[in-house]
Design brief:
By secondary structure, this protein is α/β, with parallel strands linked by helices. The chain has three domains: 94 residues, Diphthamide synthesis DPH1/DPH2 domain 1 (Rossmann fold); 111 residues, 3-Layer(aba) Sandwich (Rossmann fold), CATH 3.40.50; 99 residues, Rossmann fold (3-Layer(aba) Sandwich). The protein has eleven helices and 14 strands. The strands form three sheets. Strands 1-5-4-2-3 form a five-stranded parallel sheet, covered by helices on one side. Helix 8 packs across helix 11. The protein is flat.
Length: 331
């Protein structure tokens, strides 16, 4: 696998030298309007045929399979960094789409006015990881002590946030009074807030908005109520993803064994892209999601039965206590 900051002459030159015959271009939702132009640019520069899988790209964990890529011998993935401990079906080029450094002065001013803790852990999405160093230096000038953690073997960079892994933050939690996430949207700061007990703020370096602190207690109370609602469930569905970076078959088998040990019944259900309607009419009372934990956490309202993460499932069947709450971290 190779990494690049943008679709530039370096990437195009490497693709041309490799002599690929057909390339699958995997594009996240935010870049869909430019996908056709990017495909044409790659074709003109390399002579390869480019195909664009149409399903949503959730991350580096779900590369297009052989059916989607139409026999491609390489993948160009936009907007994501590689997951280091994941096996890949073919040669993959990661274009991380790093954002240019904005004017830091107004962003730092927003942080100073918000009265954040002066011992801060910094976390960022891959597009804004290059801001961690400049932010650390600028905040230090104003009396802050900042920490950037090194996460587990799934993460490509220190300080990186993944929807399934916030170990770059948990590794330094005891050393800081709170966390500042640098990036756009609420997806990562909400996941981060569930992963750590310290307060979390989110700063959008493009729009300049500072949000937070995110209230972990409110999110936890909803999850605990959902867990309690599933405690009487006798029949469970254990969901396993076909995506290479999300498939946890051994974990699913262990959870089935745990269910049986506690007098429950459980069956493994496989999927690639899950639709809530796929689970209707099965006679099951609750589900445990072994794929991306954000499916259970962010989309719970879409399902007519409780949808829990593996640690929540263990609490529901009485195998572990409800508290302390444990985020379902992929390792």
């Amino acid at each position: 696998m190779e990494t690049y900051s943008a679709v530039d002459d370096i990437l195009l030159g490497d693709l041309r030298k490799a002599g690929h015959r057909r390339i699958a271009l995997q594009v996240p939702a935010g870049l869909l309007p430019s996908a056709s132009a990017l495909a044409r640019r790659i074709e003109e520069a390399t002579g390869a045929t480019v195909v664009i899988p149409t399903r949503a790209c959730f991350g580096a964990c779900d590369p297009p399979g052989p059916e989607e890529s139409l026999g491609s011998d390489a993948i160009v993935t936009l907007g994501h960094a590689p997951i280091l401990n994941m096996r890949r079906p073919m040669k993959e080029y990661f274009v991380e789409m790093r954002s240019p450094e904005p004017d830091l002065e107004p962003l730092i001013e927003r942080v100073l006015k918000a009265d954040l803790p002066h011992r801060l852990g910094l976390v960022a999405s891959v597009q804004h990881l290059s801001l961690l160093g400049p932010f650390s230096r600028e905040l230090a000038r104003h009396g802050f002590t900042t920490e950037v953690g090194t996460g587990g073997r799934r993460l490509a960079y220190p300080g990186q946030a993944l929807g399934c892994n916030y170990t770059s933050a948990t590794s330094i939690e005891k050393e800081v009074g709170g966390f500042l996430f640098i990036g756009s949207g609420r997806f990562h700061p909400l996941g981060l807030a569930l992963s750590v007990e310290k307060p979390v703020w989110s700063l959008d370096p493009l729009g300049g908005a500072l949000e937070g602190p995110y209230h972990r207690e409110k999110m936890l109370s909803r999850r605990l109520l959902l867990i309690e609602s599933a405690m009487d469930a006798k029949k469970w569905g254990v969901l396993v993803s076909a995506f290479p970076g999300q498939s946890r078959v051994p974990l699913a088998q262990r959870l089935v064994a745990k269910a049986l040990k506690h007098g429950k019944d459980a069956v493994v259900l496989t999927f690639d892209r899950l639709d809530a309607r796929d689970l209707l009419g099965r006679g099951l009372e609750a589900y445990v999601m072994t794929a991306c934990p954000r499916i259970a956490l962010d989309d719970a309202s879409q399902y007519d039965r409780p949808m829990l993460t593996p640690p929540e499932f263990l609490s529901a069947i009485g195998d572990r206590p409800l508290l302390p709450y444990r985020f379902d971290t992929f390792v």
